[in-house]
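Recap quiz, item 2
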Amino acid sequence: MLLDRTVPAETGHAADFADAEFADAGCAAASQAGDAALESWLQRELPRLGLPLQRRRVRAKQHVFRAGQPRTALYLVHAGFFKTALVSEDGREKITGFRMRGDLLGLDALDMNAYACDAVALDTGELWEVPFARLRNECPQFQERITALLAQEIRRDWNWMLALGTLGADQRVVTFLFDLAARLQALGFSGECLQLRMTRAELGNFLSLTLETVARSLSRLQARGLIEVAGREIVLRDRAALSGLLAAGGRVH
Amino acid sequence: MLLDRTVPAETGHAADFADAEFADAGCAAASQAGDAALESWLQRELPRLGLPLQRRRVRAKQHVFRAGQPRTALYLVHAGFFKTALVSEDGREKITGFRMRGDLLGLDALDMNAYACDAVALDTGELWEVPFARLRNECPQFQERITALLAQEIRRDWNWMLALGTLGADQRVVTFLFDLAARLQALGFSGECLQLRMTRAELGNFLSLTLETVARSLSRLQARGLIEVAGREIVLRDRAALSGLLAAGGRVH
DNA sequence: CGTTTGGTTGACGAGTATCAAATGGGGTGG
DNA sequence: CCACCCCATTTGATACTCGTCAACCAAACG
């Protein structure tokens, strides 16, 4: 399995999008590392409470849950790559994010009894069921952790709203590549050589572009020697120049 | 409805963005009404805990707080109209939302010790300081309430990401008008006759449009007899036709 | 094999951004 | 009270990005 590795320490971050910010207050006992902290925390706490670790395995294109279904559990991504998506009643779809190891699925529906979005696996993966109700009651730190995750998601979304609203196609693509690279690097992967798990259409949907525009943008960047594209494998060749593209500034409105 | 299958009837698109949603689970004691519930709850609980109610008055264009400042408090909007905005280091600004009575300012930075966005008053208003730390410790229901508000904000943001990514200019404007109308109505205002508190530029910024495009869109809608525009006063003349505009469907990507 | 799915590229047009100018209202100071 | 200016808004002309439609290719799959 591609994603299985132990997680090293927090490393560098790309721009606005990584969560460089961490409250030192609160959660004294639990946290110190980045994303995957929740995983090891669960591994430690669940046995202590006498709760079994429920694993759920999924294959590519399989739905973890769908919007409207009764919310039975929260899922922690342990391996694999997922997307969460909103679908309006007139069929418009919007991918709200790509989720990987350490991310929680279902957080956005915490206050409801039905899921608020679809969660779909993009390749085979494993989920850990998080017994939210029990943990909330028996472990006060957990509640704060959840709160922090929610706030982080809001800031992430706001940053994307800023990017999508002010940047051109190429800049959006580059921003995405940097974001993905930073997240992968935080999980111990290369950070230079990216293996996309989503189609051009899904990428375009997330960036509010058409699949053609994404393909063209990648081709342009490759033609300029900034990246190398081979299907879903992308190599960042010239980070400086790519950053320059972003700094070139978008519309200010 | 986009997200909330718990809500009964379709009333048209206005409801998509309003917070019609309320989990019946949890918060048993506290909630029943709409937004202003938190206000009356505070009014009841603060005296009970021996905490004074700190009011803060602000004038138009005055900053409540700025991104990066130490996070001293959460603010509940009691009166007035506010915007929250993100500013990237290269100067691009993005208004992340307009906040009115019952909304909380600063929620998105709960896990940090510095604010994550700017909050600016658009007219004179009054804020209530929320002693978050005390309430969290002494009142378990409060924590859940906060969690719910965070999750709701995420869904709101996602819905706007969907709208901005898939709708044309006129549809975005109509969506905004419906959303505003629904929120005002929930506060006991007309719902037909809207008094905008923001400039065309701010509206455009929020909708990822230029101020000219917003002006033109409003003019078009007025020319078709769907709305009446007089500066910042807007009257919804033909809700059905406006809904039709939305249903006409946007790009599907 | 044929079929399906994902990706690339081209030609063209629609929808907005951009630049520019004119209008109007509200406030301030004379 | 008026003149003036500043700001917000409206409207027009033009440019340009990106969406749309289409053809083609490659790989995967039944």
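Confidence is low (pLDDT under 50) at residues 1-35 of chain B.
Chain B touches chain A through 65 residues (CB under 8 Å).
End of item.
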